[in-house]
Amino acid sequence: MLEREDFVCGRALRLDALVAAETELSRTQAQRLIRDGLITLNGESVKPNAVTSVGDLVEITYPEPEEVDVAAEDIPLDVLYEDENLLVVNKPQGMVVHPAPGHAGGTLVNALLFHIKDLSGIGGELRPGIVHRIDRMTSGLLVVAKNDASHRALSDQFRERKAHRSYIALVDGNIRQDEGTISSPIARHPVDRKKMAIVPGGREATTHWRVLERYGQYSLLQIELETGRTHQIRVHMASIQHPVTGDDVYGSDKKPFGLAGQALHGYRLAFLHPRDERSMRFYAPVPEYFLNALKKAGETKSAEELMEQLIKMENKGE
């Protein structure tokens, strides 16, 4: 049975851009479905560049999932929770989430296909079960859907901001303020297409941060994502001249403290279970690479003490 969904436009955008913003589909996937007549605007087939208006009705018919042709690989996974609908995994730094040019194997998807017999097909052939993503050199929590119904329910939560993600980040510089919010739109960089940037007219993006510790030339932050744009934390922190330490794309090309990449870890993930809507909350401890960098910066607390501090700050803010 084909799955369907619809939504009423809240803003005027090209149809393909709007679908990519409002669903888990990429813009390329949206364009393909529009051309195939599976996405309609006010009941009519249109071109991907058709401009929508506020109040227009967009209807999406999802095709049957494609056969997954990505190799299953026996790669260890740090699974924090699993049931018949989903699993929560703690991705290590350095692991790519899904196959892409230059990363055909060794990804989280390859590992998932070995670990799980059935995964949601909504993400397409190369992204089965993937509801949301984090960068290769960012570590932390991800929820993976085992079936299409769970995938849609979880995707809706992320889109409607009912799912919550928290990060810990070491950033360059001594931030004087104790907390702040960055609300700047993000889109593909107009010149360097491998990067994202703050671009007027880009997708809305909001990041909340609070200082945990200061180490002179570095600051340790607790970060809450209100939206989940590509490279959001990295772009936003660089925009206020405090790039994530070790980020050689948006910050300095130097690698202090022996870091292989950015010091950014998704330590908390909260959402409602897609079947019975019970509250689910998970924590991933501060990983060894991150803790080693913090100790070199001047941190004296253990990973357990840092997690206690994070949870106290989180509870205080609620």
Please give a structural write-up.
- The chain is α+β, with helices and mostly antiparallel strands and 318 residues long.
- The chain has three domains: 3-62, RNA-binding S4 domain (Structural Genomics Hypothetical 15.5 Kd Protein In mrcA-pckA Intergenic Region, Chain A); 79-159, Pseudouridine synthase; 164-317, Pseudouridine synthase, CATH 3.30.2350.10.
- The chain contains seven helices and 14 strands.
- It has helices spanning 15-22, 27-35, 108-115, 148-159, 232-239, 288-297, 303-317, and strands spanning 3-8, 39-41, 57-62, 79-82, 86-91, 139-145, 164-172, 179-183, 186-188, 196-198, 206-214, 218-225, 264-272, 279-283.
- The strands form three sheets. Strands 4, 5, 6, 7, 8, 11, 12, 13 and 14 form a nine-stranded mixed beta sheet that branches. A three-stranded antiparallel beta sheet has the order 1-3-2. Strands 9-10 form a two-stranded antiparallel ribbon.
- A hairpin with a 7-residue loop joins β9 and β10 (196-198).
- The protein starts with a strand and ends with a helix.
Write the layout of secondary structure elements.
Layout: E1 3-8, H1 15-22, H2 27-35, E2 39-41, E3 57-62, E4 79-82, E5 86-91, H3 108-115, E6 139-145, H4 148-159, E7 164-172, E8 179-183, E9 186-188, E10 196-198, E11 206-214, E12 218-225, H5 232-239, E13 264-272, E14 279-283, H6 288-297, H7 303-317
Parallel strand pairs: 6-13
Antiparallel strand pairs: 1-3, 2-3, 4-5, 5-6, 7-12, 7-13, 8-11, 9-10, 11-12, 13-14
